[in-house]
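DM between two lab members

TW: hey, do you still have the ComEA family DNA-binding protein entry open?
JB: yeah, one sec
JB: this one, 204 aa:
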Amino acid sequence: MEEVFSHIKQNIIVIAMILVMSIFGSLYFWTHKTKPVQNEIKTEVVTKDKEAPEKKQKINNDIFVVDIQGAVKNSGVYRVKKGTIVQDILQMAGGVMANADVKQINRAQKVTDQMQIYVPYTGETQVSPQNSANKGSGGGQKKVNINSAKADDFKDVSGIGPKKAEKIIAFREKNGNFKDLHDLTKVSGIGEKSLESLKDQLTV
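TW: and the structure you got?
JB:
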């Protein structure tokens, strides 16, 4: 026994080093064992973040922007869901006025993105602008193009006399073509109210 104790005393440093190494080895093992779980969670979060823009894009594609004008109580631009019909837009606009001629529009038609709906007044001929909810396909008054029209072309436009026609042409020649109908308000003598009655007779 004395020889055994003597042998242990002589090698106590080696035994202590083995114990320390065992402890550090155990700590290292348990520390690295939990890391893959953390990485897995992080990967899952990143994946969800990448999917979010795709879902958002899909939602945006289901929203249409529609402009409604004419004989309605609250004309303006409305955001609606895909599948909405003209009748729904009329209700969103507060309904039609008493002197509205709804027979000239298709209230069951599905709206499209950036569509313009014009509700004519009684006695007014429905114009056929692009993407409008009109029933006919070729009838109605022909619109006058303000970027190419001559003075005589405005003679059938209600609200534009010879002097205003000359002002429109002079403004166009000085500043270039009109980008949209609202640019007419830059012409002297044409305001927002005048434009409201003119926009169904003119185009760019």
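TW: got it. The longest strand covers residues 63-70. Helices lie at 2-10, 12-33, 35-61, 86-92, 162-175, 192-198.
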